[in-house]
Structure prediction request, 165 residues.
Amino acid sequence: MALLLALALAAAPAAASVYTPLDLDRCRVIERIEEGESIRWECPGHLTIPLFVSEGDGRFDVDAGMENDTWETLDPFNYPGPRVEWRMRGRVPVAIIYRLISAAPEAPGLSVLMVESIGSAARPGCLVAMIDGRAVRANDLARLHADRAGRFRCGRDTVVRVGPL
Prediction:
């Protein structure tokens, strides 16, 4: 696996990362549903691309560009990490990587790197990969899948899962 990852990283065209904070205190509430205690925020993202964060039943989902209709989260209660990595092709963001961290006592130490394509009016974004944060070279794997997000066909291609998720 390590050799395949090294070969894939060496063959991949150069991409870059930009990091932005994910601070719900800096976000605007766009909907609060008292029954079920769920909330949706619009948050600053990168350039003109906003982040949409949803929380319900102690679990979070993050979308970039526009919200999609799919709830993409972990089974255990969780919360998002403090920053988002934007994978760039030149000056154009192609995907985001964010971390969901388990808040459940039955899954201590679990964190998962969520890789999502960026949505637009022409093409909704979606989950591309879930990488167990404890996996060897987890960040490199997440970046590799993020860099391929532009070719990922939401609803048709299979989401990559690395680790016991």
Summary: The longest helix spans residues 2-11. The longest strand covers residues 78-89.
